[in-house]
Amino acid sequence: MKLKVLVVALVVAMVSSCGSDGKKSDKKAAPKEEKKEVVEVDPMKDKGIGPITSVTLTEIDQAMADKGKAVFSAKCSACHKMSKRFVGPALAGITERRTPEWIMNMILNPEEMVEKNPIAKKLLAEYLSPMANQSLTEEEARLILEYFRTVKEK
Amino acid sequence: MKTILKSLLAITVLSVVFTSCGNGGSKKGAQGALSGSAAEKVYVAPGEHDEFYAFVSGGFSGQLAVYGLPSGRLFKVIPVFSVDAEKAYGFNEETKPMLNTSHGFIPWDDSHHPDISQTAGELDGRWVFINGNNTPRIAKIDLTTFETTEIIEIPNSAGNHSSSFVTENTEYVVAGTRFSVPYPQRDMPIEEYKGNFKGALSFISVDPEDGAMDLKFQIMMPGFNYDLSHPGRGKSHGWFFFTTYNTEEANSLLEVNASQNDKDFIAAINWKKIEEYVNNGGGTKAPTRYAHNVYNETTHTATSTIKEEVVVVDPSEVPGAIYFLPTPKSPHGCDVDPSGEYIIGSGKLAAELTAHSFTKMLAAIEGEKFDGEAYGIPILKYDEILAGAVKQPGLGPLHTEFDGQGNAYTTFFISSEVVKWKLGTWEVVDRKPTYYSVGHLMIPGGNSRKPFGKYVLAMNKITKDRYLPTGPEVTQSAQLYDITGEKMELLLDFPTIGEPHYAAGCPADLLKPNSKKIFKLEENEHEYAVKSEAEAKVVRDGNEVHIYMTMIRSHFAPDNIEGIQVGDKVYFHVTNLEQDYDVPHGISMIGANTSELLIMPGQTETFVWEPKQVGVWPFYCTDFCSALHQEMQGYVRVSPKGSSVPITYTLDGDAVDAE
Known about the structure:
The complex is a heterodimer.
Chain A: H1 2-19, H2 62-75, H3 100-108, H4 110-116, H5 118-127, H6 138-150
Helix pairs in contact in A: 2-6, 3-6, 4-5
Chain B: H1 2-22, H2 38-42, E1 52-57, E2 64-69, E3 74-78, E4 100-101, E5 104-105, E6 115-119, E7 122-132, E8 137-142, E9 147-153, E10 165-166, E11 172-176, E12 181-182, E13 197-206, E14 213-222, E15 225-231, E16 239-245, H3 254-257, E17 263-270, H4 271-279, E18 284-296, E19 301-313, E20 322-328, E21 331-336, E22 342-347, E23 352-357, H5 358-366, E24 370-374, E25 377-380, H6 382-385, E26 386-391, E27 397-402, E28 407-412, E29 417-422, E30 428-433, E31 438-442, E32 455-460, E33 476-482, E34 489-496, E35 503-507, H7 508-511, E36 537-541, E37 544-552, E38 555-557, E39 560-565, E40 569-576, E41 585-589, E42 597-599, E43 604-609, E44 615-620, E45 633-639, E46 648-650
Parallel strand pairs in B: 14-19, 37-40, 39-45
Antiparallel strand pairs in B: 1-2, 1-35, 2-3, 4-5, 6-7, 7-8, 8-9, 9-18, 10-11, 11-13, 12-13, 13-14, 15-16, 16-17, 17-20, 18-19, 21-22, 22-23, 23-26, 24-25, 27-28, 28-29, 29-30, 31-32, 32-33, 33-34, 36-37, 37-38, 39-46, 40-43, 41-42, 41-44, 44-45
């Protein structure tokens, strides 16, 4: 009886490998049905998804922050204002609401973040315009983070 | 025992599964390992990529179409010689200069023969060149952006047909005239054609670094029709071969009068010898006028320059550089095999295909085996240079490509077929019908030292009943054949734009990694670019108004503009601030006498609007860009001429601001 099950399983395996016709499986898997997220996440513990796994913060580096402000003005300010909601959320005080890693991952890896990260998914549902990937480098994202640290919520 | 039986059963079932798997589910095992249903062979599953790119000439559309093979799916129509409202090519201020000529702005041409650049005789995938036949021009398309980046007009030429083929290291792209014309052009009786009309063969050098083209020299040949050409390769590198017809030099009813001679010629040109002559100061600097148009990817802007001089070479000045190879009956195609030894001439009206031997040609030149001369150019003896002939291959041979396995494939227009034959033995191996009246054919790399002999694409002149009828005008048609077996197998029909002439193909892997995804904002040097909303502004200069505008998902900045007057000339200079792949935005203005703009990430484009009516007029984004695309709009207030309403511009009620 057990053997029969095994045989059926093997045949099924063969048939399905046949169906894929030896093509390399480098393509993306079809989107799966996502389970409803019910777990509340503490935003100050969520590092998000992306290349940044750990950021160590020290004293604010004003020179870095100034450079960050310049990058922000050029690449981000069309959609984000510091003091008010615009196309995207207001950003004053953001470093008190999100981890440094989450902020940088949202800048560097927005497509995956809005698809998988519960906080980012919620933001997309609220704002509808997806966070644009502006193809910044990790260094530029880090400069912007430094700039964000200098702007407190009023 | 039961267990053994079950195991046996299991093995049997598994072998059945394995067997059917190995065959690809086909019952035609007898036709070879690669046979299978035609549908499977051309099926590219959703999300998968094709194995080859095919660049198919758009014929009288003037464009170049990009298809995937084997699927036959159309990916892009690259505007080259004709305006394209979809992409604003020839409509926006940046690309209008691309279509400038010595005759002024021309919105159309007839594109014929694409050819991919080569290094050491193999495709290198940097550029594709194509000729405009009607107002003679050669265009270069950059294969990182799939955009036309350079067009050079060819003076002293008419019906630019034996073009645009590249030499083995893309030293030159070559353009030959089909129609001979008076040289220099002048007011003269047509019946005095003989001896007064000349056929210019133009050699355009290509800079190995940036691809910049320069018309290096023109050879002023006798007044025949120069029909097609191909470069020597390998051993024959340094030579170029051109078919001729109308060696009768008829100027009327050519259908009859240019078909009198038993043999016309293939002109063999030792271009290295002529290049050396020119480099040493040879040739005559002759006055002329032609346009040279260059698109700069950094400024996103084209410029057009009129040039007024060209170096012309009279064949008699360089003895030993040019010979005529007699070839039966108005030869059309002129194709050189991957080794460079055989030059195939397809006499349109001949009963056989002619293969000349390059080795024998050199020996005949050495031994002075001449059969007279024409206008001082020696005619080699036919029997001395002939390698062989394919006997009774079909009716109306046109073009030949090669698979790199010792086989050649020739199209026959009159008998509507592709014929496979062997180089060296000249025996016919297979023939397959085409539907109908095939012209050119293409094997990826089939005009190089290294063909990728998996498919041949046949491009037909007549479509008739192959698709659902669409009134008197029906689509143009191409057909794909599998050539991996001894016999060819027809796999697919697919429609094409315009009338396809030649095509060029290459493996997708040669281009895919180099394809550009965005233009970097930092590198944008457009004169009117603005790189953040803070810099957006509106500036009046007399009756000209320049709007420096930005766009990002999903708004324009500024989006409310006042102070425009009837009679103004309003320039919208619009920069797409996105830096993400596949997020273009469009913009169009009610009543603007031009096309939309379709602006890629990091790019700036400009359109001009001359408002004629007082009112408040909207503009909007034409490319669905996000969930809030329908919100991407703005207004311009137009006041009467002389109104005192000042120029103001805002976004969200504020003067445009960064923070």
